[in-house]
Design a protein that fits this description.
The complex is a heterodimer of chains A (462) and B (452). Chain A is mainly α and 462 residues long. Chain A contains 20 helices and 2 strands. Chain A folds into 2 domains: 140 residues, no CATH class; 246 residues, MetI-like fold. In chain A, a hairpin with a 2-residue loop joins strand 1 and strand 2. Chain B is 40% helix and 16% strand. Chain B has 17 helices and 17 strands. Chain B has 2 domains: 177 residues, D-Maltodextrin-Binding Protein, domain 2; 206 residues, D-Maltodextrin-Binding Protein, domain 2. The longest helix of chain B has 22 residues. Chain B is of the alpha/beta class and 452 residues long. Classes of the chains: A mainly alpha (462), B alpha/beta (452). At the A-B interface, helix 7 of A face helix 3 and helix 16 of B.
C-alpha cells in the first residue's frame, strides 16, 4: 500500500500566490480592473447582483478603515490596528474616561478577522472574474444571479450549510479564543480593571509559573497540576474498570431483572449532576446522616469533616474520588452493556470449541473488544477529568484551604482558574492557566489517540 | 427560491429589530441589594412623581431599580463599565477598586449632597467614603445603610447574663454538652475571613484608666504602611482566642460543613457571631428562642498573659463596621440628575422608611434617638440597638488605600493564616514566637499584598 503524501502547507500558500498572479496576467481587462475595483469583472458581464455585493463589501471595508467609527469611544478601522499595539495611552482623569484597553484589544482582533474575511472576498472576486473569462473563452454563458442562488441550494448546498456554522465558529469560538490567548500576554489583572490602562507584558505571565515562590501561580502551579493528573488518572481508570465490571456483572447470564439494575444506575445520569453533588455534600456534612450513623454505631467518637473542612487533604481527595465513582461508573456501565450485546457470538463459540477457559475468553475476546471500542471514550474521559469542574467545585470548593493561597488542596487547574478570574479578577493568570491546560489536554489527546488501535486499525472490528 | 427570500426577509427584520433596540435610549438604572429592590423602586417612583409635579419638564427617563448581590456589584460593574448602571450600591470596602486609576465612578460635587452627608453620617463612614484620585481627595460614595457584627444566641440555654462574657457562654456550653450527649460549641463564626475574625483582631482592652484601647492600626489615616497588629495586647487576645478555638466543647470555630443554621437548630452551637443579613436565617433556626446581644467580653488568664498585658485584663470583643453606599457611574447619560436622586435616596426620611420596611440599619448617626421604630420592643429593634452599640467597639473596615490591599477581600490569605494560627493547624504555631511571626506576616500582607 502506498502512503498518501500530505500536502505541504507552504507549498499550498505559494501556489495560491502564483495563481493570484497568473489570474492577473492571463485575465481579461475586466479581471485586471477587478483587482482594483471589486466586482467589476462581474458587473461588466451582467452579473449585477454578484458584482454589487463585491463592490459594496469593498466600499464598506474602505469606509470602515478610513472613517474609523467608534463604539463606546473606541474606534474600529485603521485606528484599531494602532490601538492593538498600544492598548491605549489616555489614562483619563476624574471627569473623563481612560482608554478602554480591553475594548481596543477586542476591536483589534475583530479588525484582523474582518481584514482576513475581506481578503478572502477579494481573492474570490478575482477568481469569479477569471472564471467568467474562462467560460466566455470556451463559448459558454456566464451564470446569472438566479442561477447562482439556485447553485447555493443545489451543487453548492454544502456552502449554504457551512457558512452559518463557520460564521458561528468564528464569532463564538475563534474570536474569544484569540482574545483569551492575547490576554495571557497582558497585565490585565485586578489592578487593571475599570479605568486603568492595560499593557503588553510579553511572556512574563508564563515565566511566573517557573518563578518559584515569587507568586501564587509560581508556588501553586505544579502542586495543582500534579493533583490534577492524579485525579484525572484515578478518576478515569477507576470509573472505567469498575464500570466494565458492573456492565459485565449485569449482563451475566442468570442475572435477573437486568433492566431494573440498569435503570437504577442510569438514574444517577438522569438526575442533574449538581443536585446529586449537593445532596452528597449534605449527606457527608458534619451533622449529616453518615456522621450521625457512624457516631451512633460507635465507629466515630465525634463527627468528622470529609470534604472542604477535612483535617487533611488526603481525606478530602479520597472522598471526591470515591464520590466520583458514583457519578462516573454508570456511563462506562452503559457503554459496556451496549458493546457486550454486540460482540459476535461466533467468537465465543469458536473459543469454546477451542477449549478456552472463561478467563481466557474474557482476556482474549471480551476485554480487547471493549478496549478497542472505548479507547476514544477513555481518552476523552481522561481529558474531561482534567477539566472536571462540577465535582470539585460543588463538593469541596477546592478546599481544604491552603493558608496564604487561593488554590486549595483539592483544586484542579480548572477550579483554580475559576477562582483566579471570577474571585480575584486575575484574568491574565487565568488565561495562562487556560493555555497550559489546553496544551496538556491537546497533547494527551493527540499522543494517545494517534497511538491507539482504534485509530490505527479503524476497520478491524467491523 | 421563495423559501430563501422568506428567510432573507426574516433575517432582515431581526437585524432591524436588534438595531432599533441597540439605538434606543437606555433607562436610568439603579442597582440595590435584592432584599430592598421593591422598596427603592417605590422610592424612585415617588421621586419621579414629585419631580414631574415640581418641574416644568418631566423627568427625562424612567428609573429602573434592579436587585443585585451588592457584594458583587462593583466587580460586575468593572467587567463592563459602559454597560453598568447609573447608580449602584456597594459595601464601602469595594470603593478602592472602583476609584483605581482615573476612577470608574464619578466624584460627588453637589454641595447640597456633601452638606447632607456631613450632617447625617458619623465621621467613620465619611472617612471611608473618600478616595484620592490624581492627588485630590473627593467624596465618591453616599452611605445609606450600616452594619456590624452582633451575637445571636439560643435563649433557651443562655441567659442575658451568660452572654455578657465568653467565659460564661463557654461554661454553659460545656455543661450543656453532658446534658445533650454531644459536643456543643460556645459560638460559631461564619467564615475565616477578616470580617469574621474581627471580633478578636479588633478587640479592645480596658486600660488602667478603665478606658477601652487597642494598639491595632489598619491603614491609619489612609497610609498603606500604617498597619500594626503585633502589639502585646493583640498577641494576648490571640492567645486567648487560640485556647477557645481549640476547645471541642465550649469553644469557638467556623461552621462545619452542615452549616451554621443546622448547628444552631440542633444545639451543636449556642451562639452565632453574625450580621443583620443572618437575622432571618437565625430566626428560622431558633424561632422564639433567638436572643440578640452585643459581642461579649473576655478575660485574659495566666495562660494568655503576654508582655504588658497581665492576667485579669478584660477585653471587649470588637467588630469591623460596614456601610453600604450609593456610587455613580462616571460619564452617565444622566449625570446631571444623579446627585439629586442621591440626596433623596440617602435622606433621613427614606432611611427611616427603609428600616421600617426592610430592616436596613440606617447610616444616619442619630437614628437610635430619632427613629421611633428603633425603640419598639421587637427583635428587629433589638438587633438595631445592638449593632449601634457595637459601633462603639468597632472601626469601619478600611478598603485599602492601595487598591489591592485590604484586610478582607484582597488580603492574599491573611485571614486564613490567622485562622490556622488560632487552630494551631499541624502544630505549626506552638508558642508565642510563632503567633508573633504569624501576625507579622499578616501585617506584611496588608501593607504590600504579598507575604514577604
Amino acid at each position: 500500500m502506498t502512503k498518501k503524501k500530505k500536502p505541504n502547507v507552504f507549498k499550498k500558500i505559494g501556489k495560491g500566490f502564483k495563481n493570484f498572479y497568473d489570474r492577473f496576467v492571463r485575465g481579461s481587462i475586466y479581471t485586471k480592473i477587478s483587482y482594483l475595483i471589486m466586482g467589476f469583472g462581474n458587473l461588466a458581464r451582467g452579473q449585477i447582483w454578484k458584482g454589487m455585493i463585491f463592490l459594496v463589501c469593498q466600499v464598506g471595508f474602505v469606509l470602515l478603515m478610513v472613517l474609523c467609527p467608534e463604539i463606546n469611544s473606541t474606534p474600529f478601522g485603521y485606528k484599531a490596528f494602532a490601538n492593538l499595539i498600544t492598548l491605549g495611552d489616555n489614562p483619563g482623569d476624574i471627569n473623563t474616561a481612560a482608554d478602554n484597553s480591553m475594548l481596543m484589544l477586542l476591536f483589534g482582533v475583530l479588525m484582523i478577522g474582518i481584514t482576513f474575511l475581506y481578503l478572502a472576498l477579494y481573492v474570490s472576486n478575482t477568481k469569479s472574474s477569471y472564471h467568467n473569462d474562462m467560460l466566455l473563452k470556451e463559448g459558454k454563458k456566464v451564470s446569472n444571479f438566479k442561477e447562482d442562488l439556485h447553485d447555493l441550494t443545489d451543487s453548492k448546498f454544502h456552502l449554504t450549510m457551512m457558512i452559518p456554522a463557520m460564521v458561528g465558529i468564528l464569532i463564538f469560538t475563534l474570536l474569544p479564543t484569540i482574545f483569551m490567548i492575547l490576554i495571557a500576554f497582558t497585565n490585565y489583572d485586578s489592578l487593571h480593571t475599570g479605568q486603568n490602562l492595560v499593557d503588553w507584558v510579553g511572556f512574563s505571565n508564563f515565566a511566573q509559573i517557573f518563578n518559584g515562590s515569587a507568586s501564587e501561580i509560581g508556588t501553586m502551579f505544579f502542586p495543582v497540576l500534579g493533583w490534577t493528573f492524579v485525579w484525572a488518572f484515578i478518576a478515569t481508570f477507576s470509573n472505567y474498570f469498575l464500570g466494565i465490571f458492573l456492565g459485565i456483572l449485569i449482563n451475566k447470564r442468570g442475572i435477573k431483572a437486568k433492566v431494573l439494575w440498569r435503570t437504577i444506575f442510569i438514574l444517577t445520569i438522569a438526575l442533574p449532576q449538581f443536585i446529586t453533588l449537593l445532596a452528597v455534600r449534605k449527606i457527608l456534612g458534619n451533622l449529616g446522616p453518615v456522621n450521625t450513623l457512624l457516631v451512633k454505631l460507635g465507629i466515630l467518637a465525634s463527627p468528622v469533616e470529609f470534604l472542604d473542612q477535612a483535617a487533611n487533604e488526603f481525606t478530602a481527595r479520597g472522598m471526591v474520588l470515591l464520590i466520583n465513582l458514583w457519578i462516573g461508573i454508570p456511563y462506562t456501565m452503559l457503554q459496556t452493556s451496549g458493546i457486550l450485546m454486540n460482540i459476535p457470538k461466533d467468537l465465543y463459540e469458536a473459543a469454546t470449541v477451542d477449549g478456552a477457559t472463561r478467563r481466557q475468553t474474557f482476556w482474549k475476546i471480551t476485554f480487547p473488544y471493549i478496549l478497542f471500542v472505548t479507547t476514544p471514550y477513555l481518552i476523552s474521559s481522561f481529558v474531561g477529568n482534567i477539566t472536571s469542574f462540577n465535582i470539585i467545585y460543588l463538593l469541596t470548593g477546592g478546599g481544604p484551604t491552603n493558608p496564604g493561597f487561593k488554590a486549595g488542596e483539592t483544586d484542579l487547574l480548572v477550579t483554580w482558574l475559576y477562582k483566579l478570574t471570577i474571585d480575584e479578577n486575575e484574568y491574565n493568570m487565568g488565561a495562562v492557566i487556560s493555555i497550559m491546560t489546553f496544551i496538556i489536554t491537546a497533547s494527551i489527546t493527540l499522543i494517545f489517540y494517534s497511538r491507539s488501535k482504534a485509530f490505527k486499525q479503524e476497520d478491524a472490528f467491523q | 427560491m421563495k423559501k430563501i427570500a422568506q428567510l432573507l426577509s426574516l433575517a432582515l427584520v431581526l437585524m432591524l429589530a436588534f438595531s432599533l433596540t441597540a439605538c434606543g435610549k437606555k433607562s436610568l438604572t439603579i442597582w440595590v441589594g435584592t432584599e430592598s429592590q421593591e422598596f427603592y423602586q417605590q422610592m424612585v417612583d415617588d421621586y419621579v412623581e414629585n419631580y414631574n409635579a415640581t418641574h416644568d419638564e418631566n423627568f427625562p427617563s424612567e428609573i429602573v431599580v434592579k436587585g443585585v448581590d451588592s457584594g458583587a456589584a462593583a466587580a460586575q460593574f468593572l467587567d463592563d463599565t459602559e454597560a453598568g448602571p447609573d447608580i449602584f450600591t456597594i459595601p464601602h470596602d469595594n470603593l478602592g477598586k472602583l476609584t483605581a486609576g482615573s476612577s470608574s465612578i464619578a466624584a460627588i460635587t453637589n454641595q447640597a449632597l456633601i452638606a447632607q452627608m456631613e450632617a447625617d453620617n458619623p465621621q467613620t463612614f465619611l472617612d471611608v467614603s473618600k478616595s484620592t484620585v490624581d492627588g485630590t481627595t473627593y467624596y465618591f460614595a453616599v452611605p445609606y445603610v450600616s452594619q456590624s457584627l452582633v451575637l445571636y444566641y439560643n435563649s433557651s440555654v443562655l441567659t442575658a447574663e451568660d452572654v455578657q462574657t465568653w467565659e460564661g457562654i463557654s461554661a454553659k456550653a460545656i455543661a450543656y454538652s453532658s446534658t445533650v450527649g454531644h459536643e456543643v460549641k460556645a459560638a460559631t463564626i461564619l467564615g475565616t475571613d477578616g470580617y469574621n475574625n474581627s471580633f478578636l483582631l479588633l478587640s479592645e482592652y480596658y486600660n488602667s484608666s478603665n478606658e477601652l484601647t487597642t494598639s491595632v492600626q489598619l491603614y491609619e489615616n489612609g497610609v498603606a504602611s500604617a498597619c500594626y497588629a503585633t502589639g502585646d495586647d493583640t498577641i494576648a487576645a490571640m492567645k486567648w482566642g487560640r485556647r477557645y478555638f481549640q476547645l471541642t466543647s465550649g469553644g469557638i470555630d467556623q461552621a462545619g460543613s452542615s452549616g451554621w443554621e443546622e448547628e444552631l437548630k440542633d444545639e451543636y452551637s449556642l451562639c452565632l457571631i453574625g450580621g443583620a443579613w443572618n437575622y432571618n436565617a437565625a430566626l428560622a433556626a431558633l424561632g422564639s428562642n433567638l436572643g440578640i446581644a452585643v459581642l461579649p467580653e473576655f478575660t485574659i488568664t495566666n495562660a494568655d498573659a503576654y508582655g504588658t498585658i497581665a492576667a485579669g485584663t478584660v477585653y471587649q470583643s470588637g467588630t469591623f463596621t460596614d456601610c453600604k453606599c450609593f456610587v455613580m457611574k462616571k460619564g452617565s447619560d444622566y449625570q446631571a440628575y444623579l446627585e439629586d436622586i442621591l440626596i433623596y435616596l440617602s435622606s433621613v426620611s427614606v432611611q427611616e422608611q427603609s428600616f421600617e420596611t426592610c430592616a436596613n440599619l440606617p447610616a444616619y448617626k442619630n437614628a437610635a434617638d430619632e427613629f421611633a421604630a428603633m425603640s419598639a420592643d421587637t427583635l428587629a429593634a433589638k438587633l438595631a440597638s445592638c449593632e449601634i452599640e457595637m459601633f462603639n467597639y468597632g472601626i469601619a473596615q478600611p478598603f485599602g488605600y492601595v487598591q489591592k490591599y485590604n484586610t478582607w477581600f484582597y488580603s492574599k490569605g491573611a485571614p486564613d493564616l490567622i485562622y490556622a494560627m488560632l487552630k494551631n493547624t499541624d502544630n505549626a504555631y506552638p508558642d508565642d514566637a510563632s503567633i508573633l511571626s504569624c501576625l507579622q506576616t499578616c501585617e506584611t500582607i496588608w501593607k504590600t499584598g504579598a507575604q514577604n
